[in-house]
Amino acid sequence: MSVTLYRLEGCPYCEFVVDELDELDVEFDSVWVEGLHSKRNEVKRVSGQRQVPVIVDDEYGVSMSQSARIFEFLETTYGDADSPEEVEVEF
Predict the structure, then answer these.
(1) Which fold has domain 3-86?
(2) Helix 12-23 and helix 67-78: axis angle, to 10°?
(3) Where are the domains of the chain?
(4) What's the 3-state SS for 20-41?
(5) What is the DSSP letter of 52?
(6) Cα within 13 Å of Cα(42), Cβ side
(7) Distances in Å between the alpha carbon of 42 and those of 1, 7, 9, 23, 77?
(8) Which of 9, 68, 69, 85, CA to CA, is 20 to 30 A from 51?
(9) What is the pTM of this model?
């Protein structure tokens, strides 16, 4: 699997990313992380910080956080948008 999503149970931003992955029919693995930031060492290892969601796409060599940036990447890479300027993200 080339796409991995690091997520936290009950995190609404994580669920927005899951919904977008499902809508774009992108297969992904979920890695459930600890609620305590201090316990999120694996997230820090792959992204340099401890917040979620974090997506890692091995095929494109991408590791990023912040749901709005993730949406732009997913739409540009897997959706119909030609460039990030065409993506409109509403939360």
Answers:
(1) Glutaredoxin (3.40.30)
(2) 0
(3) 3-86
(4) HHHHCCCCCEEEECCCCHHHCH
(5) S
(6) 15
(7) 18, 11, 16, 27, 25
(8) 85
(9) 0.84
Contact 80, 74 (CB under 8 A): no
71 touches 89 (CB < 8 A): yes
Average pLDDT over residues 22-32: 96
CA of 38: how far to CAs of 11, 48, 56, 63, in Å? 17, 13, 20, 20
How far is 33 from 7, CA to CA, in rounded Å? 6
Q: How far lies 73's CA from each of 20, 29, 48, in Å?
A: 11, 17, 18
Q: How many CA atoms lie within 13 A of 1 on its CB side?
A: 11
57 touches 3 (CB < 8 A):
yes
* pLDDT per position as a tens digit, 35-68: 998 999 999 999 999 999 999 999 999 999 999 9
Cα angle 36, 40, 42 (rounded to 5 degrees) comes to 165
